[in-house]
Amino acid sequence: APTTAGPAVPAPGPQIPVGVTPPPGYTIGPDDMLTIVFWREKDLSVDAMVRPDGRISLPLINDVLAAGLTPEQLRVALAAAASKFVTDPTVTVVVKQINSRKVFITGQVAKPSLYPLTGPTTVLQLLAMAGGVLEYADAENITIVRTENGKPTSFAFNVPGGGNAGG
Predict the structure, then answer these.
(1) Ramachandran area for residue 117 (φ above 0: left; ψ -120 to 50: alpha; else beta)
(2) What is the 3-state secondary structure (H, E, C) of 130-152?
């Protein structure tokens, strides 16, 4: 009697690295770290840092604009670009690190510095990251400057219960 070798084992899918969960509305920006995985095409799969010009470099495909795109839009663009070299490319874009969203906290805080914005963050959370306002800080006159589409916009912010602590 012929012997049979058990049930057929499906070919393993691509090993997708774990990344961060981007916030809603997230678009890729310079300094973000991405992992691009092409299923069955290991030579095309790379870790890519988004350059200051907003592009990433991949084997064969060369430079691709990533900044300003969502991970899904980049996935579609990469699949289209790879289709010149690969039949039915299956691409996955994983956001490994979000480094493009930054906030500078300066002035009367314990630790003025540059801080990454990896998700939705409140002003109070940012102040806490910076070690809190200093004793003589004017907590009722904080200015938030936000740049959107290249234009700075200012907002006034008061720390709830502002003024100096213990006052």
Answers:
(1) beta
(2) CCCECCCCCCCCEEEEEEECCEE
pTM of the predicted model as reported, rounded to 2 decimal places: 0.68
The string of pLDDT tens digits covering residues 88-108 is 999 999 999 988 888 888 888
The conformation of residue 102, written as its DSSP 8-state character, comes to: E
Q: Computed over its alpha carbons, how large is the radius of gyration of the chain?
A: 23
Maximum separation of any 2 CA atoms in the chain, in Å: 92
Q: What is the amino acid identity at position 137?
A: A
**Strand residues in the chain grouped as ranges (E):** 33-38, 46-49, 55-58, 62-65, 91-97, 102-105, 113-116, 142-148, 151-157
CA 46 distance to own-chain centroid: 17
**What's the pLDDT tens digit per position in 26-63?**
899 999 999 999 998 888 899 999 999 999 999 989 99
What are the structure tokens assigned to 15, written together?
């090993």
